[in-house]
Amino acid sequence: MKSKTLNQVTDSDIKLLKVFRAVAESGSFSAAESALGITRSAISLHMSTLENRLGMRLCQRGRSGFALTDEGKHILSYSEALLTSIEDFRQHVNRLHHEIKGELKIGIINNLVTLPQMQITHALSRLYQKGPNIQIHLSMSTPIEIEKGLMDGQLHVGALPMISPLSGLEYSDLYEEASYLYCSHAHALFHQVGQVSSAEQLKNWDAVVPNYRLSQNAIEMQQTLNAKASASDREGIAFLILTGKFIGFLPEHYAKHWVERGMMRAVLPEEMHYFSNVCIATRKGRRANFILDLFLQELKVQA
Question: Which keywords annotate this record (predicted)?
């Protein structure tokens, strides 16, 4: 049989090699019929096709009986290694679905943990349940720091307010957050809330305002206040409100803890409030990341 070069191994080659292995293990074409579930003539055709494909005779068959040629013995050994490698590959891939390993780096704005819906909390829980070997790295940051981390690859995903979208990021809505104006029980206004009938009257009281980026409707609402202090995040605003010297806006879910304990009260809630969209952001054109995709999937489940 004329020798030839095998340029590549195809799916058809692998199927033929499996037939060859079954024949070699059975010791004859007829004995391989039950193992393969095909007729002896079909087995003979497959063997001839494989020998033509490889350019060598793999076995002797005839009146003298069945026997592997020297080349056949080598091909059988090589095919065993190949088929074992394929099976190992299949098992490793399937194992990844049960033993997911890698990192998820997520940046979140402060104080989302008090959200009653707990979308992010539940999604992280479900993710870790599927992959207990996943390393989760969570950082609490400002919106600007989160966007920077996403753009330079330091973060995989971020949760932040939708203010002015960056062209290099993709955003999807997570939930709507309501913010109201609050004073503390130590503030003179606490027991006079019912006497305040307009936003104009609030200019008589000192206020704390955020020095981080806000949406336009939030900016317009903050501008109605008599700003005398500022804070870099919502926790800082809460600190200053609780001094009893300032009024300020806080997310409703974050202030709820103090409201229920009688330590804070909303001021003119029908008028002094605004809404912000909090989004999940990822970098456009990012590399495929199975763990990130799984986390985003879990977020959709919880939404």
Answer: DNA-binding, Transcription, Transcription regulation
Residues of the chain with pLDDT under 50: 303
Rounded to whole angstroms, the maximal C-alpha distance in the chain is 112
What CA dihedral angle connects 234, 251, 184 and 231, to 10 degrees?
20
| Mean pLDDT for all residues in the chain | 88
pLDDT, position 101 = 79
Both tokens assigned to 205: 């009281």
Report the helix count and the strand count for the chain, using DSSP H and E: 10, 11
Q: How far is CA 36 from the centre of its chain?
A: 43
- Pairing outcome for strands 157-161 and 248-251: unpaired
Class of residue 233 by CB neighbours under 10 A (exposed 0-12, middle 13-18, buried 19+): middle
Q: Is residue 260 part of a domain?
A: yes
Nearest to 122 by CA among 175, 81, 167, 198: 175
* In-domain check, residue 4: no
Here the CATH number for the domain that contains residue 165 is: 3.40.190.10
Which residue's entry shows tokens 């500022």? 230
Report the C-alpha gap between 249 and 282 in whole angstroms.
Answer: 28
